[in-house]
Specification:
- There is one protein chain.
- The chain is an all-alpha fold.
- The protein has 2 domains: 9-65, Arc Repressor Mutant, subunit A (Orthogonal Bundle); 71-195.
- Helix content is 75%, strand content 0%.
- The protein has 11 helices and no strands.
- The protein has helices at 9-31, 38-45, 49-52, 59-70, 72-82, 88-105, 109-116, 121-134, 136-146, 151-169, 174-195.
- The longest helix has 23 residues, at 9-31.
- The termini are far apart.
Length: 199
Amino acid sequence: MPKISAATVAEHRAQQRAALIQAAVDVLVEQGAAAVTPAAVGARAGLARSSFYQYFPSAAALLAAIVEEAFTTADTATTQALADIHEPAQRLDAFIRTELHLAAQGAHRPAKALMQADLPPECLARVHELHHRHYAPLQAAITAMTGEASELTGQLVGGTVQAAMTAIEHGADPTRVADRALALLHHGLTESATDRPPA
């Protein structure tokens, strides 16, 4: 029986699986989806290629696992941040500040790489589904603030958030970026609600 580095076999297997996923994320971010192969990921994780197949039947299965886990941290963080907040403008603030905090930690690297990768169609469809679900609370806050469910407004807000993430990834101060982005968004969304013709 191979030597284990955890208290139980189950914990050991969980650690090995996590190591493979982290190694795959690193390969994905650095080299793209095509480079995520059992041999490359096993080598990056310090495991034999045969060990890879004890956890994933194929590279496609590993990519599918990355897709699911890429959004788990962000979903958990935003759910916790919004748990006790009900006013739409405050929910928008909390969601965006949480997103930018995660960006500062590098938590969005896998999802960003997945969105840009040449993934199998089923994986790409799942990425877009999870991305849409993750941003649903933000879209709901925008709708409540403006009084209309505008896809364009949501896209423009999303573009501002993405630009803020990029600034943070390039070394800008997360708090300053968040403050500036939110000031712009509150002004724009307030103007949008004011300019909307009466029903």
